[in-house]
Amino acid sequence: MSDGEPTVGVVICCYTERRWDLLSACVREVSAQAETEGAAVAVVVDHNAALRDRCAAEFPSVTVVENRHERGLSGARNTGIESLDREVLLFVDDDAVPRAGWLAAMRSAFADPDLLAVGGEVVAVWPGSRDRPRWLPPEFDWAIGCDYAGMAPFGAQIRNPIGANMGLRRPVAVEAGAFRSVLGRRGGVPSGCEETDLAIRMRAVAPSGGIRRIPGAPVDHHVSADRCTGRYLIRRCFAEGGSKATLMRLEGAARAMSAEADHALVAIPRAVGRELSAFARGDRAALSRIWWTVAGLVAAVAGWSDGLLRRGTVSATTGAKGAPEDGAHVPVWCVDRTAEPMEATRRVPGDTLPGRVHVLVRANHRPIGQVDVALDPMGDVAGQLLSACEGLRDAAPAPAPSWPGGTTTASVVVCSLGRADTLPAAVRSVLFDQTRRAHEVIVVDNDPESGRVARALRGIADPRLRIVTEPRRGVSRARNAGIAAAIGQVVAFTDDDVEAEPDWLARVCEVFDADTDAEIGCVTGLVVPADLGLVTHRWFEESSGFERGYRPMVWEPGGGSGLLTRLSRYEPHVVAGRRGPAYPVAGSEFGSGNNMVLRREWLAAVGGFDTVLGTGSPARGGEDLDMFRRMILGGAAIVYQPAAIVRHHHRATMPALRRQMYDYGVGMCANVIRFAVSGGPALLATAAVLPGGLRLLLDPGSEKNRDKSADYPRELTYIELAGYLTGPVHLLRSRVREGGLRRRR
Q1: Which of 80, 255, 293, 727 has its CA 20 to 30 A from that of 585?
Q2: At a CB cut-off of 8 Å and minimum separation 6, what does 509 contact?
Q3: Per-residue pLDDT tens for 179-196?
Q4: How far is it, in rounded angstroms, from Cα 161 to Cα 163?
């Protein structure tokens, strides 16, 4: 050791005697270099008394200690930190053997006082001195603990080193809190991210410090035969994804996922391009490497999603697991500025007034905009609301001719598991509150064994109310059961977490009344939040929401039949339906399944809801979008009537919102793939809209993303994208459950 260089200790952690030969080789090489360099060596045994005794007997020149903390690699490394009071600690795995000059090169790097940590080269040594498996993509060598294609070059700053060969400045690591036991490998469980987590916290302690990948300090990492299998790769990727979810909750998305995002968006696409070129040159194994690249990426995303969905949150941004977000009650009221003042306002239940409301402003029954209003409970509430609406005066449409009278009968179907506290209110809103009575209200109990639906509706009595049971889970099956039981000319669907405005059914049915030629197969309406008092409510509105605007729209198949012109007699502001970049493949322009009304004749023509899709199936959603698409492609017209309004109770907790966003991603992807594989024309149509659809999904400035606020959590964006990536797997599971290629019930 030369003057000015730091004191060094080396920590070797082990847990099993199955690696004894490699452990012995590692300890012998490290001990020889340590003797030359004047370094201390500690072997930390992770809760294995027999291995501890054997190490103590075989390695008398090194310190042998047992893990004093919770079982796992993080606890063992922390024991090493406590056992060696040296300025720099080097960590090497028990299946890695340093090459000559390793310790000297690592120590020399720390002559830079601003260096917090370093990572040395980790070279894979394949079992039996064989070449690397031809199926294994080099971008995934991180899964076996080795250097990988796409990582930073030597000399570059890195976020964190690979744990098999790293050095840390001990005082900074201790100040940062050392390794956290919630992360890291436990025996044979291939979790990780403990090095990433500590590196992030070390940088927070010493912001001016750096972490660098250095040359000249390689170790040979011996890869066991069981890790040279596709099964292990998928397990490792899934476990790493789960660890990344934990890390993101601890450190935030930006710091936790920066390197992974770069690798997924840059290195992986480059690898696929490289392998396609290799295949064109005759390398048949290239297709296998592409397959495992995609499979590994999907497994990592699935593990990450599973970690976020299962474990809730521990971050300050989102509060305690499962707890509603902080916020005052901010109900959404409908105010018609052309109505009598006291008829124009809707009060919250009870006698107390909220301090703030969000107002959906209507004029002559038509929505024209939304405003936030701070209320003075001592003042004239109706006057305050109407005054706040004055800014939208110019947006108000002129009075239009009345719709023609008609006798269209409507069956309202509400599907439920009985879990929503809002079910009774949802049923009352369509059964008792409508200005145009429903012919019948059918509640489909999709969990009849629980008895929850029957108990929730016990106090509601009306001869028009029927409960139909469908024990097979899934909203598509439940909706099909509702269709089979319904006798109305149109079947109106809403959900058990939705309440309809009193004129909802009237506004829908008058459109069907005017359609004497039965061209319209579906009418959708405006969905507004029931409350905007919680940050989760606002984030949902920013990310997805259900709103499709305030102007009526008509989508006509083919060249059109003049339906738009005929409807303009009653809706002067009606326009041709918007056709987005993924039209009509995604089906998302038309509306949403919690406010849709379908004509029975067209339902019979296109078939019921696809049981492979939908909430309650492995595909998690997309059945409503699939129905819209089949309607328009089957020759039916679709009308969006924003005057038909329902209120949706958004998710109140961050875990629930995360799950909802993931499900949306899965459902949309499953819906699109389900269509794409239905035939050659469908595949071509999907390929044609795919570039525009990807821009809509990924471009921060797209219509989908541009309204997200500065505090919108990145994790919600990531988890929705994770849903898209894992959608094919969920769809496959759903198809298998439904009997392969069979489409509907």
Answers
A1: 293
A2: 406, 408, 410, 436, 490, 597
A3: 988 886 776 666 778 888
A4: 6
CB 577 within 8 A of CB 636: no
Are 68 and 145 in a shared domain? yes
Looking at residue 569, its amino acid is R
What pLDDT score does 82 carry? Answer: 95
Please indicate, yes or no, whether residues 464 and 384 belong to a single structural domain of this protein: no
pLDDT at 435: 95
Q: How far is CA 727 from the centre of its chain?
A: 11
CA distance linking residue 242 with residue 306, whole number of Å: 7
| Residue 445 within a domain | yes
| Residues 42, 121 within the same domain | yes
**Cβ atoms 554, 637 nearer than 8 A:** yes
CB atoms within 10 A of CB 610: 25
524 and 383 within one domain: no
Tell which residue, 479, 418, 466, has the closest CA to residue 439: 466
Total domains in the fold of the chain? 3
Find all residues with CB under 8 Å of 595, minimum gap 6, and list them.
Answer: 493, 494, 498, 504, 524, 525, 526, 527, 546, 644, 646
- Does 325 map to a domain? no
Question: What's the pLDDT score for residue 258?
Answer: 66
Question: What is the band of 315 on the pLDDT scale with cuts at 50, 70, 90?
Answer: very low
Contact 393, 381 (CB under 8 A): no
Residue 581 pLDDT more than 60? yes
Which residues are bridge partners to 200 per DSSP? none
pLDDT score, position 489: 98
Residue 320 has pLDDT above 80, yes or no: no
Report percent pLDDT > 70 for the chain: 91
Beta bridge partners of 360: 334, 370
Task: Tell whether 437 is covered by a domain.
Answer: yes
What residues make up the domain containing 353? 332-395
Q: Does some domain include residue 420?
A: yes
